[in-house]
Inverse folding.
């Protein structure tokens, strides 16, 4: 009997070693960034069986067999739709700035989507202004209203949007609503889904969360896009979820969320429509590819806002927005102003910002003073010392949870959309960003950023170095997990 238990022990140890070795080899074989690989290896070795199990659930970009297969089959028809955009007069790469040309080149090679001219962009930086304009556009809709959000939280003006959608559906307008299952869980528990469906609105939850699904798909992949398309002619995107900030997350102690949205008319709207169609088809297997943009034939017509629509997410080409951010920083000559609620950059982005400051580019990063994620807050602080030493200016916004995701380069061109400066947005979530090569629009965004700076406190390097040993220890601990946040 003793020999039996001895053999059982040896077999158990061998099996344990085999599992740990196998998972470790798999982590290394994926050839991801060194930081991500080391973070996972640390978790696997510190919490051996739990770490290995966590890696199998959350360690790889597993979209699920059905979704992955649909995405693969969709590349050809959607690719053909995007190829037609190159034939239009609005495809004017030669009128773009050098910055715009380089960004477009990356996007054309990575996702096959060109930048298009003849758009008209309006920047909306007040929540109730955004909701009022959105309701007005919904009330004027004739054919279709398409919405896609990470969070829809019932209450206040968000309910007014829901009522406007129901009234439009009664008028015969086709309404399709796609919401992330986790982010919009309060919406799906409310009266609204049933009420909307009773009036003919198609309501779909994306990326359902359940214990059963964790064995087939990574559960923390989220649909983080914010898109509205009305009649294929009016579009919205930006950082704002479908919420009334007076009714949303009031117990978090971070203040009201501060956001911006971009209202668009022109040929880039059907491109946003196609991204909504992609997400809808991945989730439902129903195809609603939109009509192509209307082609303007007058060669001498004015060229207005040049817009590059940049989608990213599982099933699409990897790292496109990460590469665009890096290229934007590399090209900066005078100034970089960044606003983001969650600042946990990749090693490459962190180093690019340090180098930019060292070559005398003024770098300003505006983040919330209070954050709704404790882990992100402490991990973010771990980057401050090196940034401050290099001359980067870090500002803590006091007016609420600054949720705007924007980058302004040299006061001349900008990026604006749904992407946070963290690994989740850059590699895991479904996101969308606009690269805008237009001076007038960029100046408006810069004025909004300056308003944030006026309500922010600059982090002093001298005071920062006086922080406690406990704070430094917490920063280092959470920094180890920063590649996974």
């Amino acid at each position: 009997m003793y020999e039996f238990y001895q053999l059982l022990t040896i077999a158990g140890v061998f099996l344990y070693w085999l599992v740990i070795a196998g998972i470790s080899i798999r982590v290394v074989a994926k050839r991801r960034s060194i930081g991500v690989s080391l973070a996972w290896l640390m978790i696997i070795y510190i919490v051996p069986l739990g770490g290995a199990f966590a890696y199998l659930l959350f360690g790889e970009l597993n979209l699920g067999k059905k979704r992955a297969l649909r995405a693969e089959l969709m590349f050809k028809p959607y690719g053909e739709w995007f190829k037609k955009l190159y034939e239009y007069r609005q495809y004017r790469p030669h009128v773009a700035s050098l910055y715009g040309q380089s960004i477009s080149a990356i996007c054309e090679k990575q996702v096959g989507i060109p930048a298009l001219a003849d758009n008209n962009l309006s920047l909306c930086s007040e929540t109730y202004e955004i909701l009022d304009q959105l309701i007005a556009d919904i009330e004027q809709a004739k054919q279709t209203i398409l919405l896609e959000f990470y969070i829809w939280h019932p209450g206040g003006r968000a309910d007014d949007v829901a009522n406007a959608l129901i009234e439009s559906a009664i008028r015969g307008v086709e309404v399709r609503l796609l919401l992330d299952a986790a982010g919009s869980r309060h919406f799906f528990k409310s009266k609204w889904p049933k009420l909307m469906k009773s009036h003919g609105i198609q309501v779909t939850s994306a990326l359902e969360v359940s214990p059963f699904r964790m064995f087939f798909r990574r559960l923390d992949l989220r649909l983080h896009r914010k898109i509205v398309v009305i009649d294929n002619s009016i579009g919205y995107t930006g950082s704002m979820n479908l919420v009334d900030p007076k009714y949303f997350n009031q117990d978090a102690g971070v203040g009201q969320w501060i956001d911006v949205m971009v209202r668009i008319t022109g040929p880039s709207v059907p491109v946003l429509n196609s991204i909504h169609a992609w997400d809808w088809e991945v989730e439902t297997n129903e195809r609603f590819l939109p009509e192509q943009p209307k082609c303007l034939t007058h060669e001498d017509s004015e060229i207005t806002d040049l817009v590059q629509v940049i989608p990213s997410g599982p099933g699409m080409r990897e790292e496109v927005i990460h590469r665009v951010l890096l290229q934007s920083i590399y090209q900066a000559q005078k100034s970089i102003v960044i606003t983001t609620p969650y600042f946990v950059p990749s090693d490459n982005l962190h180093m690019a910002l340090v180098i930019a400051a060292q070559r005398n580019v003024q770098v300003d990063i505006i983040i919330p003073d209070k954050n709704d994620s404790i882990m992100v807050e402490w991990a973010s602080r771990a980057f401050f010392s090196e940034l401050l030493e290099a001359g980067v200016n870090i500002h803590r916004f006091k007016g609420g949870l600054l949720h705007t995701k924007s980058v302004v380069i040299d006061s001349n061109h900008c990026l604006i959309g749904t992407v946070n400066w963290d690994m989740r947005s850059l590699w895991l979530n479904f996101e969308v960003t606009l690269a805008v090569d237009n001076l007038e629009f960029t100046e408006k965004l810069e004025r909004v950023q300056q308003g944030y700076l006026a309500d922010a406190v600059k982090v002093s390097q001298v005071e920062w170095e006086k922080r406690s040993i406990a704070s430094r220890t917490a920063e280092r601990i959470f920094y180890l997990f920063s590649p996974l946040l």
Summary: The first helix runs from residue 2 to 29. The mean pLDDT is 86. The longest strand covers residues 116-124.
